[in-house]
Amino acid sequence: MLPILFAVAIQAAPTPVMGSGLAALFAAVSATTPPLEPSGPTTAGEVSFLREVLPVLTRAGCNAGACHGNLNGKGGFKLSLKGEDPAADYAALTRDLGGRRTNVHAPEQSLILLKATGMVPHEGGIRFPSQSPEYRLLHRWIASGCPREDASQVTLRRLQVTPTGEQYIYPPQESFRLQVTAEFSDGSRQDVTHLIAAEFTTLGVARLTPAGEVVREGYGTTVLLVRYWNQVQPLRIVFVPNRPPVPDATVASEHEIDRLIFQRLQRLRLPPAPPASDEVFLRRAYLDAIGVLPTVEETRAFLADPDPHKREKLIDQLLARPEFAEHWALKWADVLRNEEKTLDRKGVGVFQRWLATQMAIDRPLPEMARELLGATGSTYAHPPANFWRAIREPLARAESVAQVFLGLRIGCARCHNHPFDRWTMDDYYQFAALFARIDYRILENNRRDRFDGHEFVGEQVVFQKREGELIHPRTGQPARPRLLGSPSPLPPDADRLGAIAQWMADLDNPFFAAAQVNRVWKHLMGRGLVEPNDDMSLNNPPSHPEVLAWLVEDFRRQGGRLKPLVRRIMTSRTYQAASQPAEGHSANSAEAEIYHAQAIIRPLTAEELLDACSQVCAVPVAFQGYPAGLRAQQLPALPLPARRGADRPAERFLKTFGKPDRLLTCECERHTDPHLLQAFQLLSGDLIHQMLTEPNNRLGQLLQSGHKDQEILTELYLAALCRYPTAEEQKRLLRHVGQASDRRAAWEDVLWAILNSKEFLLRR
Prior knowledge:
- Mean pLDDT is 88; it is low at 1-44 and 449-454.
- Helix content is 40%, strand content 10%.
- With 764 residues, it is α+β, with helices and mostly antiparallel strands.
- It contains 30 helices and 18 strands.
- The strands form six sheets. Strands 1-7-10-11-3 form a five-stranded mixed β-sheet.
- The chain is globular, with a radius of gyration of 30 Å.
């Protein structure tokens, strides 16, 4: 969710309020809150343009993206977003319109004051009243001749928010006071609490008064983003409901993940859910690790096994199975854009096999990333080169690499400095310059016609040119290639792809390990420690920072390999928790999911669901252009004819349940939200009907072999739900079959009901 802008001078809704209503609100605020006396340069001597004037404009929202900070400005007045370009802002305030915005001879006639206070019509409404500290500060600055200082002479070195760390507020406490101190490069320190702009990421949890008091509005968690000048500091705030503390004995575990998770749950007074039953754990582990259900025989053996360590043994067995590689290769193929529209059928196939091979041998993920990013050559002979074939433009390459490998969304910095993170336009274009020399050669004997505006061709050769630069739009000069977070650009003759590839393979890379750990956690737990999992920014801190830090270090100790990471998470009690809250606990499910107090219930993915239906019914599916019997998770990509409407039931099923086209470098392209078409597919779709009525399906085989009704029901339950039917289920379903005139049709009804049950459709 995007942060909700919260103007700290306004104690109402986060959106601007127009007209006299807001003026009345300010009057009420002024009557109840003593006016803030600004500290520092505003109380004695010259008002600082950099330290005070620009922060006041940011605080009032004047340079926000919805106002004059817009790319094209508003009403002929343009400011840089959040004050990122002080020189341009100073010129706009003092030189444009013949200096009418700041009238040094009659400061009260300055448009910047008249419009902000509603004295003249202003589309943005009243930003602050005429008796406010903001008005007095701007008036004094204008009256003193609009002085300015050289931005190169002083910089903001550090922004300190007090109290520090996370704040847990327990009843009866309802508020706490915030203090923000700025430390500058000249050694001076200043209390800037009255100058900050503040934004809460969650509406309805807290508000910030003009005096710097954080006041509870509801219970829950929010992050307060404190902005001053060019820095942002996040502060996580939790208003804990009035519930009893969690005893230490409730959260005892030797697993490090559990220890860290339970420490936070204790602070939140959230008791962890009990361990899931063997039936639930078995089905969950198979789906999460290898994407398929256990066989009836595997289920019987596990449920009957008395070994107290059988869960750990099962996890090790799953990690060694070939389906593990196919399952996790599918996850990478989604974000690497492995699809036929840009790669063609053969390119998709070789790329998918290469990904599965990397998973099977448990190649360290940094090494896999290094080969992908440094790949050149034939897209057939050297499959990793297909990554660059799918992304044809330098800016798209930069954003894709940052999102997939670093967990960073840097796209906002394309037009301006990132408003909620550390990245500047210079960072963006210098990073994108690393990918400016990638080019392609289409072999003449493989050239084909265009398809939907794209080159739909056979083999291509990816190579790196010796020249070619990316022009920085702000400077008009070539951007010097530089790695994100690096202080200096690469040498002019550097191998750019080689540099990014080596940097990515370095286990000390500050971004890569955290991004991959968070992605794996999301796939296993249903929600990332940082969510969305590819937006690891300042304004989106992790729910469990200690867990993320420990897993990153453990990932590095294990050489950056996937299987040890998966095993580490799956062997924790946190992963194995039930999806129901602890007995007697009344916390809302959203809070429990955020902090992993209980397992998250989620729908099966399109491939998992289709493979599960096929496995339970014992009916293989057929995909256009591929051999019969291929599982959905082995399918390299959706065949192109399926996109154009000439699809078979299996392809239609996958599309309906959210299999992505892979046209975006984002897991958000895969959707699992339920909708009406999914219900039609399950209730009356061609594919389900075909599986149910196939003469030689699981039902047909059981009936032909002379199994009794009790045995058939047990097998269906074990195959689909990984458990035995309850006494009540046996009574009702066997009665339905026994009273039917057509035994086969009655059993088809039972199987249809099982396939449409929530227990089958959901991973619990």
